[in-house]
């Protein structure tokens, strides 16, 4: 795979591999081996986050992967991490990134994202709660958080900074104050939720677009029996049979061709979909969002953060 690694070029000049290894929901005790294996077969982009709770293992995997291949250097690997919501206060930004770097055993990141546009109460509790189970919010303006993140680039702690789960209006808010332009937007994206307008807005403004949950997150814990399953769509099953590939590989090939830059862990560049097949998959759009954080409040499951004024999914723009 190493000889076939394809890239998108960030406005910083960095080469960001199109397919990355996502570490969300990776089981404890297995992440290190997954990282080592991925680096061994040619993956060069590792996507992680402090809230995933596994960056120490990720760091061990990177260290051992580099140690087992004399030809592989740190600069050959693109490592992304994300600032969690309880570290949005400008005074907390540098400490949050330094903590991630310590866990990953790295001197710098290639990309550091603001995980969500809204903030939680400052402190070490990643999900600070009120007595009724609702989250304790903070109202730090994400533009102030962004200005603090810019200083992290100046100090060499990360080569680029970007956004995750921001809507179009919020991206424009950041662009209006940015001295260091966001390099990447990472959001949920799959044929049920193609994000066409957001994708076009990113490309217009020079942001590389990265899509998470490109398979529709079929293993999400809050999945309902009646929810449509992307991997079971007839056209996806038909193409998988035609190309002797898994349904997941069909969806990832589609995502790569659409420049969605998916972040799972499959190889998809040894076959191609036809223009007609691309259109058929594109026709699956249901405007269906699956990754909506939920929380239990007074015994009921509700959207966890919809009450925050900076919650991105309340605003269609």
UniProtKB/TrEMBL annotation:
GO molecular function: alcohol dehydrogenase (NADP+) activity
Name of protein: alcohol dehydrogenase (NADP(+))
PROSITE patterns: ALDOKETO_REDUCTASE_1, ALDOKETO_REDUCTASE_2
Domain NADP-dependent oxidoreductase: 19-265
Keyword terms, alphabetized: NADP, Oxidoreductase
Catalyses which reaction(s): a primary alcohol + NADP(+) = an aldehyde + NADPH + H(+); S-nitrosoglutathione + NADPH + H(+) = S-(hydroxysulfenamide)glutathione + NADP(+); S-nitroso-CoA + NADPH + H(+) = sulfinamide-CoA + NADP(+)
Coiled coil (residue ranges): none
Any Pfam family: Aldo_ket_red
